[in-house]
UniProtKB/TrEMBL annotation:
GO terms for molecular function: dioxygenase activity; metal ion binding. One of its GO terms (biological process) is small molecule biosynthetic process. The keyword Transport does not apply. It comes from Clohesyomyces aquaticus. The keyword Transcription does not apply. Keywords: Dioxygenase, Iron, Metal-binding, Oxidoreductase. Gene3D superfamilies: B-lactam Antibiotic, Isopenicillin N Synthase, Chain (2.60.120.330). Residues 179-312 form the Fe2OG dioxygenase domain. Belongs to the iron/ascorbate-dependent oxidoreductase family. This is Thymine dioxygenase. Pfam families: 2OG-FeII_Oxy (PF03171), DIOX_N (PF14226). It comes from the Eukaryota. PROSITE patterns: FE2OG_OXY (PS51471).
Length: 353
């Protein structure tokens, strides 16, 4: 496996503060990334570093709670109301598997992770499910403010995508006007490496919304399928002060596959580099060789990540955008579908079976 990822880094700050030419340049760079890889790292994205760090701190506090406390905010059965806490073993990610028997077989070895989902505080269709305030004071208030920051970034990215696809004003942002997005905090508990020979932290899959923001910790383990070598996965190494953005299935359909909804998974973190012998002078001035040892070789450490999933308003019809087909050589590849109908189909496979 290659040590580096082909995912490009784009300075989104130039889009947020630049003029027309700079916005168009950034839009082209993002377009190239989504056409070639389906992923892009954005720096200068506008979500304050301190806020991201605090979100990871809150995530660790939440998942450190006793199970009986976390289950005071339980995810309802099934996938139609995607809010609250899911314990390890509840969810099994699958890739376009909808047959009940096949889903049941996949669920025999569930993903090794736990999660907590929240969304727009004003979403009456899927109200949030929070812990009692005294169970984790301040958690709800912070998560609601973090949701707002990520939601703002999503709408800025949609503006850039509108430029890339030549969508007339007002662009794609109004199709997401209700911000029916999902903020997920994820914890992958420490596990022996040998255990991951027969199970995954999260199985290979594509996201099913329009786009996803991902803030990940320094542990690593996210892998993205190489578009030029199907079945080969390469690390999406955490890069400080960036957010990783990827296209989901709905946006791939909307763009008539101009953009890739690339399969990705979470497995073993990249191996630590072998540390060379370090030759130093000791207190008596004599040279001594000190071998720096690696530790934890048999245990994969805890990993935390914070994905933020965007999806269009429920009634939005996802049909190939005019600039992505011409009716002659390039035709529509997919039948129209409502955003809500498609997401619910995918959610049913995720939680039911």
């Amino acid at each position: 496996m290659a040590e580096t990822s082909p995912i490009p880094i784009v300075d989104f700050g130039k889009f947020l503060s630049g003029g027309k030419e700079e916005k168009e340049l950034v839009a082209r760079q993002i377009d190239d990334a989504f056409r070639n890889v389906g992923f892009v790292y954005l720096k200068g994205h506008g979500v304050e570093r301190e806020m991201v760090e605090r979100c990871f701190e809150w995530s660790k506090k939440f998942f450190a709670l006793p199970s009986e406390t976390k289950l005071l905010a339980p995810h309802p059965p099934g996938g139609s109301h995607h809010r609250g806490y899911s314990a390890p073993g509840v969810e099994k990610v699958s890739q376009h598997t909808y047959d009940a028997a096949e889903i049941a077989k996949l669920r025999e070895v569930p993903d090794f992770k736990e999660s907590f989902e929240s969304g727009n505080p004003h979403d009456s269709a899927q109200p949030n499910i929070w812990l009692p305030e005294d169970a984790l004071p301040g958690f709800r208030a912070f998560m609601e403010s973090y949701f707002t920051s990520c939601s703002t970034l999503v709408h800025h990215i949609l503006d850039a995508l509108s430029i890339a696809l030549s969508v007339p004003d007002p662009g794609l942002s109004p199709t997401h006007s209700k911000s029916l997005f999902q903020l997920r905090i994820l914890h992958y508990p420490a596990i022996e490496k040998s255990e991951l020979e027969n199970r995954s932290r999260i199985n290979a899959h594509s996201d099913f919304g329009t786009l996803t923001l991902l803030f990940q910790d320094s542990v690593g383990g996210l892998e993205v399928e190489d578009p030029n070598q199907p079945g080969t996965f390469r690390p999406a190494t955490p890069i400080e002060d960036t957010v990783l953005v990827n296209i989901g299935d709905l946006m791939a359909r909307w763009s008539n596959d101009r953009w890739r909804s690339t399969v990705h998974r979470v497995g073993l973190p990249p191996p630590k580099p072998k540390l060379a012998v370090n030759t130093m002078a000791n207190s008596e001035g004599r040279r001594a060789d000190i071998v720096l040892q690696e530790d934890g070789d048999d245990i994969v450490p805890d990993r935390y990540s914070i994905p933020f999933f965007a999806v269009a308003d429920m009634e939005t019809v996802i049909d190939a955008l005019p600039g992505c087909w011409d009716g002659e050589g390039s035709r529509k590849k997919y039948e129209p579908v409502t955003a809500w109908g498609y997401v619910q189909m995918r959610m049913k496979a995720l939680y039911d079976g």
